[in-house]
C-alpha cells in the first residue's frame, strides 16, 4: 500500500498545529476509537502539547494502559510520559450522571438543584434516557473548552473519544434530540394540567396524558405525572439552556480549531458507517481532517502470495513431512487472504472518498495495555 501521497493523513502535522484545540475521534462502536484517542493524546503530549483526553469507554484496560488506577469525571495526570518536549497529559472518563448534575448545579439555585437532583424523573432522565450519554459528552467538551478559554486550565489540546453508539451519527444528533424532548410537545402535554388547571383542560388532555403516562410509567415507575410536573416546575428556566448550549457546541465543532478524525476498521459495515459520517460532517460544514483505518492485516513475507503458500502447504501435506512448516504456511495463507481483502477495502474507500486523507494502522500483535503499546499505535498513525 503506497504511503505519503496526497491522499495520506499526516497525523503529526495535525497534532502539532497550535491553532488546533480539539480533536474528535468518531465512528461506530468496536473500531478502536478509544485506543486511537489515547494514542493520539499521548503522541501529542510527547510532542509538546498540553493535552486532556476525554474517553467514554468504561473499560478498565484503558486506565491501565495510561498507568492510572481508575478514570472518572475528574482529569488526572498521566505519569511516565516523555516530557522532554514540555508537554503533559491528563485523562478522564465521562460520568454521564455527574455531568448532568453539574449542569443542574451550574444553572439553578442551590435550593432548586437539591430538588431536581432528588426528583425520580430526573434520576431516570440523567441515567438512562436514550442520547443522554452523547449529549453529556458534548456538555463536557464545552466545559473543558471553557476552562481553556477562562484560563483555569493550561491545556492547549482536547482529544475526545465519542460514545460507542450503534450509529456514529448519534453523537451529532443526540443534543438536538434531548433538547427537543425537554422543551417539546411531550413535556408540554404532560405538564399542561399543572399549568392551565381546571377540569375542562384535564378532560381535553386526559386521554393523551393517560396514554403517555402509562407508557413512560412502565419505565420510570411511581407517580410519573407528579414527578414530571415537579421536575418541569423546578427546571423551567433551564430548558432554553439545553438548546442554547447544544447550538454553542455545534458552533464550536464547526470552527477551524476542531478536527474530526473518523475511525473505522476494514470491515464492510464499519466502513459504510464511516462513509455516512463523512457525508454528514460535510453536510454540516464540518469536513473531517481524515480517516483512520484500524486493525488492517499485514504480512511480513509480502512476496509470498496466498496462492503460492497454499500450493506449498498442500505439497507438504502430501509428503506427510514437515508438519510445522505446513502449519506455518497455512497460517500465512489465511493472513495473506485477509490482508488482500483489507487492502481492497482501503482502495475502495479512497476511491469513494477521494478528498478525505486516510491513514492505516496495522493490526497489533496483542492488546494495548500500557504506554509502550499506545506509543506503537501513535507511531503507526503517523507513519
UniProtKB/TrEMBL annotation:
Coiled coil: none
Molecular function via GO: ATP binding; ATP hydrolysis activity
Domain ArsA/GET3 Anion-transporting ATPase-like per the UniProt entry, residue ranges: 21-296
Transmembrane segments: none
Matching Pfam families: ArsA_ATPase (PF02374)
Annotated Gene3D superfamilies: P-loop containing nucleotide triphosphate hydrolases (3.40.50.300)
InterPro entries: ArsA/GET3_ATPase-like, ATPase_ArsA/GET3, P-loop_NTPase
Protein name: Anion-transporting ArsA/GET3 family ATPase
Organism: Janibacter alkaliphilus
